[in-house]
């Protein structure tokens, strides 16, 4: 179909590969309109001596058939014309030529009277070739020549003259066919080049992202481990508190690699404080939050990290110094995105974050002692599955 895009608008590569020759474009439509105007002028000028109403009616009908065939082609904006449409366009074109030729009277016949008609047929059939239907165009041209010979014999100008009026369309069809056959693979080649360019760009982006991530990890490793390694190299004797800090730094660096989805300054600070008190904290990441994790403060990833910080903060306000907290981001496709299981002293609860942003909290059958209320973003709901009035 024709496009409403302005001339100065950028052309997308998909549009270029779909319609390589600009068929149906505003420029081509304007050119055909100009040709139609010249067609009418030449036909009227060449047939000025014709006084037969039936002849002018036939010439008008032939012109209408040409316009209908051209309109069908311009309405179709893809690169390959459907066979049924190609057959219909070819039939209308041959019918337009035959109607015009057979109506020309012998006494006022001029070769110039046939030129616009043959030119219109040649243009339309050449476009059929460019629409990847050369067989239809050639069959139509041969049928037009045969019918023109018959019409020449019927009108008295002779079959040779009648057929000869269509001869000059064949060189044009030969060139159009050769050009079409050479250019037909070009859209596929352009599409292949585009896909290769996209693949290369994606690969380069992934490589750059991986390199950036490695540099970030190395910088954090350097900042955390270098002072300790330098102390070890200098023969420093570590005290109990220093040894604890070394183990906490090791666990923190392991969390960055093993659970990047939980990585944030707030989570890191809260986990450090709880681990320092003796509570075991395990952070696991199987990737379910990757597609939800954005910079939006209400994203599922930020919601899960905020809930984990709140759970750890509620534990930090108690005197518990043993137990475990397991925070896991589940694999993609599960009904739950992330779960946090707290088993520290009297605190026993399981908090789950779901894909729709809802948060559920499960308490043990005996009621347990809940921690601080779990906060949820404005786009979330908290479903408590047990009574917390105990």
TrEMBL record:
<keyword id="KW-0472">Membrane</keyword>
<feature type="compositionally biased region" description="Low complexity">
    <location>
        <begin position="371"/>
        <end position="383"/>
    </location>
</feature>
<feature type="transmembrane region" description="Helical">
    <location>
        <begin position="138"/>
        <end position="161"/>
    </location>
</feature>
<keyword id="KW-1133">Transmembrane helix</keyword>
<feature type="transmembrane region" description="Helical">
    <location>
        <begin position="167"/>
        <end position="184"/>
    </location>
</feature>
<feature type="transmembrane region" description="Helical">
    <location>
        <begin position="27"/>
        <end position="48"/>
    </location>
</feature>
<protein>
    <submittedName>
        <fullName>Uncharacterized protein</fullName>
    </submittedName>
</protein>
<feature type="region of interest" description="Disordered">
    <location>
        <begin position="355"/>
        <end position="390"/>
    </location>
</feature>
<feature type="transmembrane region" description="Helical">
    <location>
        <begin position="110"/>
        <end position="131"/>
    </location>
</feature>
<feature type="transmembrane region" description="Helical">
    <location>
        <begin position="86"/>
        <end position="104"/>
    </location>
</feature>
<feature type="transmembrane region" description="Helical">
    <location>
        <begin position="54"/>
        <end position="74"/>
    </location>
</feature>
<keyword id="KW-0812">Transmembrane</keyword>
